[in-house]
Design a protein that fits this description.
Elements: E1 7-10, H1 17-31, E2 36-38, H2 42-48, H3 52-57, H4 63-77, E3 81-84, H5 89-100, E4 105-109, H6 116-125, E5 134-137, H7 140-149, E6 157-158, E7 181-185, H8 194-207, E8 212-216, H9 224-240, E9 247-251, H10 255-264, E10 267-270, H11 281-288, E11 293-296, H12 301-304, E12 311-314, E13 316-317, E14 324-325, H13 327-339, H14 341-355, H15 360-375, H16 402-408, H17 430-441
Helix pairs in contact: 2-4, 4-5, 8-9, 8-13, 11-14
């Protein structure tokens, strides 16, 4: 007899606005297809104990209490799968589950892979995963990055984040006028290359003097100092390039304000080379509104944009320490779409059509199926933490790509020692961190045209 997944949700609100919006939408979509029991967040403290440090130093005995709380949650709420959105809890809960041999599956989403925080997290999670667990990732590139860490991630489910398509009556064809608007939406941070967006826009403005650029998002970074420095960089660049009259920075936008920007814009521009990037949710949102997308040929972006049909992918090469964007291509692509209304209309129509592939009505049933399939497997094959006590990553060639762990400088660490206790997008200087993770992430960068000159598109058909 087939069992059904009974899902409990345990987590807290994400710190950043865009993450909160995506998380809420994902949960709302899932609830339309199956019940999801909300577990009171007070249990997080019960699971983690006084501190992560004390829990880790007392292992494996300290996992007795965590396992008891986990069993209580399972039995009290009648669940067989626990969805966790607080990342640091994931390796702790997996270890406790394996320690006690509990029949409970864990579900989580790989929202990021390459930042220092998330990369350590995925390394610390790998040994404890079983086929009973459902780890989801939105792009093939991100799944490959996880597999570059550990073969344990072979069973990761690649299921793109679904969107709620705007009402058809809300979408009005936005003809290119003499004063077109370029929209950039998302976090404002150095790895998002907003400074390059401004530099490219300045050249577009030379050809289309009435063009406008809207940069919507909140300034983010791994420290207040970094945020302040980048905000000053953007302010200075606006003055130096004499763009203050043509650029708007409305801050973070959600709901109707966000929809209004999509309705007003003519193209979406996203030049991120963030190694934390996995998907590009705003690319799909833009396409749903009929916006052609111009973006870097980077990670999941190139799986969402069909080059030369519904958008353009600007070449991105990673030959040195950090990725380099072909800025001349960016400018050329912007001018092509903004100066040729027929071309823009064709791209816009294709964007709307292809966005339907990512409607939540198509993606959510795949999530439900993955959860139901996992329930058919008992969690008895999980590795007990006591068996790997004090074993380094280098001593676990069946779990890790040892050579890459050496390149990260982590080969002498134990899996539990790498559980991150504080957030950091990268360690040390940006260029040094990119060089460090390049063996795992280099495939993120690509050129938009493959050998033979044919457009490079990796669209996922669902």
């Amino acid at each position: 007899m087939r069992n059904d997944a009974v899902v409990g949700y345990l987590g807290r609100q994400w710190r950043r606005i865009n993450q909160r919006v995506v998380e809420k939408q994902w949960l709302d979509n899932l609830r339309e297809y199956m019940p999801v029991t909300v577990i009171p967040p007070s249990y997080i403290q019960d699971l983690m104990g006084p501190s992560i440090e004390s829990l880790l130093s007392g292992m494996p005995d300290s996992l007795d209490q965590t396992a008891a709380v986990l069993k209580h949650i399972r039995d009290t709420y009648g669940i067989n799968t626990l969805y966790l959105n607080l990342p640091t809890t994931i390796p702790i809960v997996l270890m406790a589950r394996n320690h006690a041999g509990l029949d409970l599956g864990i579900c989580c989403i790989a929202h990021c892979v390459g930042s220092a925080y998330w990369l350590k997290l995925w390394v610390s999670i790998a040994p404890w995963l079983t086929k009973r667990d459902v780890v989801m990732v939105s792009s093939a590139c991100s799944k490959q990055a996880l597999m570059n860490i550990s073969p344990k991630y072979e069973h990761v489910r690649q299921i793109p984040l679904g969107i709620r398509l705007p009402e058809a009556m809300s979408i009005q064809p936005n003809k290119v006028r003499s004063d077109p608007t370029i929209l950039s939406i998302g976090r404002i941070e150095d790895v998002k290359n907003i400074h390059i967006v401004l530099t490219c826009f300045a050249k577009v403005l030379q050809q289309i003097p009435a063009a406008k650029l809207v940069i919507a998002g909140e300034y983010t970074g791994h420290s207040e100092e970094q945020v302040a420095q980048y905000e000053q960089t953007i302010t200075t660049l606006l003055k130096e390039l004499q763009l203050e009259h043509a650029v708007e920075l409305p801050g973070a936008v959600v709901g109707a304000s966000k929809d209004e920007l999509f309705q007003r814009a003519h193209i979406l521009l996203n030049l991120s080379t963030d190694i934390g990037e996995t998907y590009g949710f705003n690319l799909i949102e833009a396409k749903a509104w009929g916006l052609p997308v111009i973006c870097t040929s980077w990670n999941g972006f190139r799986e969402l944009v069909h080059h030369g049909e519904d958008g353009y992918l600007a070449d991105c090469r990673w030959e040195g320490s950090i990725p380099v964007i072909d800025q001349a291509q960016v400018v050329q692509y912007c001018l092509q779409l903004l100066l040729h209304s027929d071309l823009h209309s064709r791209f816009a129509e294709q964007a709307r059509l292809r966005a339907r592939n990512y409607a939540y009505e198509k993606t959510t049933p795949r999530i439900v199926a993955a959860l139901h399939d996992a329930v058919q497997i008992r969690a008895a094959d999980g590795i007990a933490p006591s068996t790997l006590r004090n074993q380094s990553l280098a001593s676990l060639p069946n779990v890790y790509a040892v050579e890459r762990m050496e390149q990260l400088g982590w080969s002498d660490e134990t899996p539990a020692a790498l559980i991150p206790t504080s957030f950091a997008h990268y360690e040390g200087e940006l260029e040094a961190w990119y060089a460090k993770v390049k063996p795992i992430m280099k495939h993120y960068a690509s050129t938009a045209v493959v050998e033979g000159g044919r457009p490079h598109g990796m669209e996922i058909h669902i």
